[in-house]
Amino acid sequence: MDISIFFKPVEIDVEGEKHSFQKAFDIHTEKSGFPDLEEIDIAIIGVKEERGAVDNEGCAKGADEVRRFLYKLNVAGFAPKVADLGNIQAGDTIEDTYYALTNTVEALVKKKILPIIIGGSQDLTFANYAAYQKMEQTVNLVSIDNQFDLGSSESDLNDSAYLSKIILHQPNFLFNYSNLGYQTYFVNQEAIELMSKLFFDASRLGQISGNVQEAEPIIRNADMVSFDVSSIRMADSPGCKQASPNGFNAQEACQMARYAGMSDKLSSIGFYNYNPQYDNRGQTAHLLAQMIWCVIEGFYQRKYDFPIRNSTDYLKYRVMLEDNKYELLFYKSKKSDRWWMDIPYPPNKRIQFERHHLVPCSYSHYEQALADEMPDCWWKTYQKLI
């Protein structure tokens, strides 16, 4: 499919310095035409869609505001092969917009190009997920958000109810969902219990804020990341109507974006719900530009290490739990010092779950096992595999 038919050229007039992204990117303009994707690693996609926004009208205009700051940022220590494809316009129906985004992400992922989506409202996460469904690929979704966006089974698809649509959609290719940064006063107890019943992962803001390195293994396990800017505290990111006094700070948001870029597994990421009309002197647009810079910088620092049995590049650790009832296998990369757990799974499910039995973890999970405690992420993954 020719995805260029979905895009309108970038129209903003920003002149960057010699080493800026504006000079380094292949930007879709009226004059230059649609970029050649053959040598491209990363593609920027703006989506001017807000009909799925709940009380956040104006977020469709976010992509171009972010570009005004992004283009001015400097290349530092890497040579980006990045194309800005322009903007997907809102279709006649919202389903038309979803169709355009789904087919674009599918085409890019098949070419091993990382799409960076700038929304628009967060229901576009559903269209992003649908690309993996078309490829029949099981997917791990990480949402950085102050709530779960489950809505109800009767709710229309919108940015407050997209997750339930993904969970209930058949055929279903969602293997795992992880939330980073939910705030308990925004989440009812039934939703928390549902996360537990589905063996999904949910980390409160207090567990991650101030200890952001604990988010790294979770993000490293993601195929796709959905970043809601309302998860960042209002003082650092006022550009969203749902902004809250509490949330991640700007540095933590950038660090998580960098973790995403560095993940060898990540194949798409989106930033949603930024609304220029609530922004203060472009503060949130500037932060989002820096977060995208961190994704790109992280991408070019990928280690391309993933444990392979009997490889000499990894240290293997065995821990016996509960009087030898369970044997836990850990791998540590000599190259990056990153950790993984090996989760056993039935032989008849080998092909289906081959990508999911090696779960990123941290040294703290290994310490937990040494103390004869089963790491929560080991047990939840095991339950999904069987």
Task: Explain what you see.
This protein is of the alpha/beta class and about 375 residues long. It has two domains: about 5-300, Arginase, Chain A (3-Layer(aba) Sandwich); about 315-385, no CATH class. About 30% of the residues lie in helices and about 20% in strands. The chain has helices spanning about 20-25, 60-70, 95-110, 125-135, 160-170, 190-195, 205-210, 215-220, 250-260, 285-300, 350-355, 365-370, 375-385; strands spanning about 5-10, 25, 40-50, 80-90, 115-120, 140-145, 175-180, 200-205, 225-230, 270, 315-320, 325-335, 340, 360. The chain starts with 6 loop residues before the first strand and ends with a helix. The relative contact order is 0.12.
Quick overview:
The protein is of the alpha/beta class and 386 residues long. The protein has helices at residues 21-24, 62-70, 94-110, 124-134, 162-168, 189-197, 205-208, 216-220, 250-262, 283-299, 350-353, 363-370, 376-385, and strands spanning 7-8, 26-27, 42-48, 82-89, 114-118, 139-144, 174-182, 201-204, 224-228, 268-272, 314-321, 326-333, 339-342, 358-361. The chain has two domains: 3-299, 3-Layer(aba) Sandwich (Arginase, Chain A); 314-385, no CATH class.
